[in-house]
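In this supplementary section we document a worked example of the pipeline. Step one takes a protein sequence of length 279 as its only input; no multiple sequence alignment statistics are reported here. Step two produces a three-dimensional model, which step three serialises into C-alpha cells for compact storage. The input and output of this example are shown verbatim.
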Amino acid sequence: MALEIRLFTLADVPFGMLLTDAEEWFRVPADWARLVRLEPEGAFKAVVDGIPAGTAAILSFGRLAWIHSLIVHRDFRRRGVGEALLRACLDFADRRGIPCVKLDSVAGAEPFYARHGFAEEYPSWRLLADGQTGTPKAARMRRDDYPDVLAFDRAMTGLDRGRALRALLADSPDRAFVDREGGRVRGYALLRCGERRDPVGPCVADPDDPGVAADLLRSALAVSEGRKLRMCVGGYQEASLRIAEELGFARADHSKRMYRGEPFAESRACYAMISAEKG
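The serialised model returned by step three reads:
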C-alpha cells in the first residue's frame, strides 16, 4: 500500500463534501473553502495507491490550535491512514511551537487520540432546534462594529480569532448581532447558512450576565426564518446549555473535547462555539 499525505486544496472540496455528507456534518462547500483559505498549509489529504482516502486539518490561533475534519473513507479504515493524517497535523503544530492542540473526538475514538498524547477535557455538545420568525432583541452588527467586536473577542477568549471571524462575517454579514451598553460591546453572536441546519455561533458575551447571551441567541433565532438550527456548546458552559434549552434547543449528541500539551482553559464568555472545528 502506497500512502501519501498531500495538501488539501480547493480542488479537493468535492471529496471533502463526500466525507462530511457521509458523517452528516451539515457542511456546505463554502465551509470547506473557508477552512482551506484560513490555513492552506494546515489542510491535508491522504491518498492510498492514487485514490483519495481521508482528510484532516488544523487551524491555529497563536497559542492554541484545533485539529478538525479528520475523516477516513470507510474503504480505507484500519490501515494507518488516520494516524498519518493526525501526525501531519501535529507536525504542523510542533513546527510552529504551538503549546496546546485541541480536538473533538467522536465516541469510541478517544483511545486513538490518547495514544498520541491527548487527554480528555469535557463533553462537547451538539444542540438542535427549529428556527423561528420574529424581531431581534439585539442590534444588527455593522461593518464599523467589527474592530470593537474583534477586540472584545480577544479580551474574552485570550485568543486572536480575527481572521476566522472576519471570514465568517464576510459570508453572513446580515445575520450577525452585537450588544452594546454605553458604546461598550457586551457580546455578539453570528448565524450562518449550512446544509439542512444553519449553525449558530460563535456567541461570546459577558460571562457574568447570561442575559446578554440569551438576547443574542434569541436574535439569531428570530432571523432564522423557520430553518433548522444547530449549535455547539462546551460541557463546561452550564449557563449556555440552560439558555439554549429554554430557547427550544435539545441536546442531540456530544463528542469529547481533548487536548495535548499545555492546558488551556476556555472562557466562560464562550456561550456557543464558532464550530466544532474552530472552537
